[in-house]
Amino acid sequence: MSDSERIPTAIIADDESRLAAFLKERLALLWPELLVAGIAANGAEAQAMLASEAPDIAFLDIRMPGLSGLDVARSADASVHVVFVTAYDEHAVDAFEREACDYVLKPVSDERLAITCERLKRRIADREPAAGLATALAALAQAVPSLRPTGRLAWLRAAVGQEVRLISVDDVCYFEANDKYTSVFTADSEALLRTPLKDLVGQLDPDRFWQVHRGTIVNLAHVVSTRRDLAGRVTLGFKSRSERVAVSRAFAHRFKQM
What we know:
Largest sheet: 5 strands, parallel
Oligomer: single chain
CATH superfamily of the largest domain: Response regulator
CATH topology of the largest domain: Rossmann fold
Order of helices and strands: EHEHEHEHEHHEEEEEHEEEEE
Strand content: 25-35%
Shape: elongated
CATH class of the largest domain: Alpha Beta
Distance between the termini: 56 Å
Number of domains: 2
Low-confidence stretches: none
Number of helices: 7
Structural class: alpha/beta
Number of strands: 15
Radius of gyration: 21 Å
């Protein structure tokens, strides 16, 4: 199937099921060719769905319990076209307009949704990259303090050989920098994540994931032992992996009590 014939896909994330169903209904009317691959009831479900479905578009309600729509957008692949769905908020809308960000207001009107759909159709047909979200997210967080990041990364979409797998962060033993990418080590596999390690740090729970080296972050739940050699170098052992990971001197103090 050629790119022009490929069916575009989308997910919808909204904790109000009635509103999510209404948005799906209006999309079916305004853009019949669009396949809605799933509806997520919260941010964690949306993250998992982004990873498993790899949609072209994500319609994300901004205010959801736990992970907000902005939290989910921060973890989305750069190829996903994000559309924020929000109740009217003058400051948030001003920030959207300044950053030329895609959004629709609740209650969703056919007129405004049609404009968004046409814009998305054009971008997908012309293979335009998804709009950069970083500045828009920063502007929103500045304009509306309650929209600042609150949630943490829960799922990863990473390559294992020729496959793309959905990995829970709970299953990760450690992350290791790999040029512009990040290697992800679980109990029984190694995967490659298309995100630099430095961009992962702020998305992980700092109480569970500790940076132990400039290029390494470990999941404390999987660490089973520490070892210090005669030169004072510290290494960590894992419950389900045979290799040991080095701790740099800058972070060795964190393991004095272990």
